[in-house]
Design brief:
The chain has no helices and 13 strands. With 171 residues, the chain is mostly beta strands. A seven-stranded antiparallel sheet has the order 1-2-3-4-10-11-12, with no helix packed on it. Strands 5, 6, 7, 8, 9 and 13 form a six-stranded antiparallel sheet that branches. It starts with a strand and ends in a 10-residue tail after the last strand.
Length: 171
């Protein structure tokens, strides 16, 4: 669990810490249990993780060719980097980062990708009832839902999540 340099709003709760997971997930707050097998979001199955940011959720492995690190850029930006991490059960690798901003914005930025299946990208609220699922695929069943990241080096793709805005009225 890491202290953030700011208070981070996520689904109506303010967090000052995040728990980092090598499997492509960051959990707002303190978490002691982790999930390596990616799942559909939202997922209310007992035992599934609650509040989470799935930048690229799979059974990932950080070996000697990979890096997993974090850094506070300034008082309003915190970055978690997954550099050349690989799938536990294959040689597929990916480089991506999850960027947190003090206003609640989350950006997931992808640089290189060798994965074609078996990952989840999205968010989930603490109650496990809400959360945009951007992508889900399961290599076992062949299920693919939503976006599929392009395969290759220098793909340079990003997905941004913004907190709810106040609806403009009075015009």
């Amino acid at each position: 669990t890491i202290n953030l340099p700011f208070t981070f709003p996520f689904y109506g709760t303010n967090y000052t810490q995040v728990t980092l997971d090598t499997n492509g997930i960051v959990y707002p707050g303190v978490r002691t249990a982790y999930a390596f097998a990616n799942q559909v979001l939202p997922n209310s199955v007992s035992g599934s993780p609650a509040a989470l940011i799935a930048g690229f959720w799979d059974d990932l492995f950080v070996n000697s060719l990979a890096e997993f690190r974090f850094h506070s850029i300034d008082a309003t930006t915190f970055v978690v980097l997954y550099d050349n991490v690989k799938a536990f059960s294959s040689s597929n690798r990916i480089t991506f980062q999850i960027v947190f901003r003090a206003d609640g914005q989350i950006a997931v930025q992808y640089q290189d990708n060798q994965f074609t299946r078996s990952y989840t990208i999205g968010l989930q609220n603490p109650a496990r009832t809400l959360g945009p699922q951007v992508a889900y695929s399961d290599s076992g069943s062949g299920t693919i839902q939503g976006l599929q990241l392009p395969v290759g080096t220098g793909i340079n793709r990003a997905i941004s999540f913004y907190p709810p805005a106040n609806f403009v009225t009075g015009f």
